[in-house]
Automatic annotation (TrEMBL):
Species for this entry: Neolewinella lacunae
Keywords: DNA-binding, Transcription, Transcription regulation
Protein name: TetR/AcrR family transcriptional regulator
HTH tetR-type domain mapped to chain residues: 6-66
Signal peptide boundaries: none
Segments of the chain annotated as binding DNA: 29-48
TM stretches of this protein: none
Keyword Transcription regulation: yes
InterPro entries the record matches: Homeodomain-like_sf, HTH_TetR, Tet_transcr_reg_TetR-rel_C_sf, TetR_C
Length: 193
């Protein structure tokens, strides 16, 4: 009879995300994972494979959660422009550096690993495609609601929003004063007026 796992895989993935996010892929050893996750090496390897396999699963789990949250956030607002404004303003808010990892796990992964792994690079491109698609959908809604002009280049604007949003996530990691980013966001949002 097979033994049942003594740990919750989802909770363990979330702990792995936390550790990889804080220390990076290269800065995290297998022993760090064993200690932080509270599982033994055999269970770690049997369930998740090697460190890179666990990292890819952690990235996928994070992307799935983040995509769902962003989609819910963007569609929950009665106004598409208001949804975009609030999303970008939240991105520029000072992070709680004591309680949460700073920035975005996927943005951190792209800075650390995009040149080293074809699989990670493909994952990052898929993530970009997903989020550009989310922004494009919100822009289409804004056109349908008469909030922005129908003659705008929506694919280009969706790419601009994705690029800006991710750039803010990077800059917010070390900027002590959020005011310049908040001012830049207000200027960016004027292109939708």
């Amino acid at each position: 009879m097979a033994r049942s796992k003594a740990f919750d895989e989802t909770a363990t993935l979330e702990k792995a995300i936390e550790l990889f996010w804080r220390q990076g892929f290269h800065g995290t050893s297998i022993q760090d994972l064993v200690d932080h996750l509270g599982i033994n090496r055999a269970s770690l390897y049997a369930t998740f494979g090697d460190k890179e396999s666990l990292y890819r699963r952690a990235l996928s789990h994070y992307r799935n959660i983040n995509t769902e949250r962003a989609q819910c956030f963007l569609t929950a607002h009665p106004s598409a422009k208001t949804a975009l404004r609030e999303l970008l303003q939240r991105a520029t808010a000072p992070p709680d550096k004591q309680n949460d990892p700073v920035g975005c796990f996927i943005v951190s992964a792209s800075a650390e690993l995009s040149q080293g792994s074809t699989e990670i690079n493909e994952f990052l491109l898929l993530n970009q495609e997903t989020f550009v698609g989310l922004f494009h959908s919100v822009l289409q809604r804004a056109v349908a609601e008469g909030e922005i002009s129908a003659d705008r280049n929506l694919p280009a604007l969706a790419n601009l929003l994705f690029t800006y949003y991710n750039g803010v996530k990077v800059l917010n990691q070390f900027n002590a004063d959020p005011t310049p980013l908040q001012n830049a966001t207000e200027e960016l949002l004027k292109i939708f007026d």
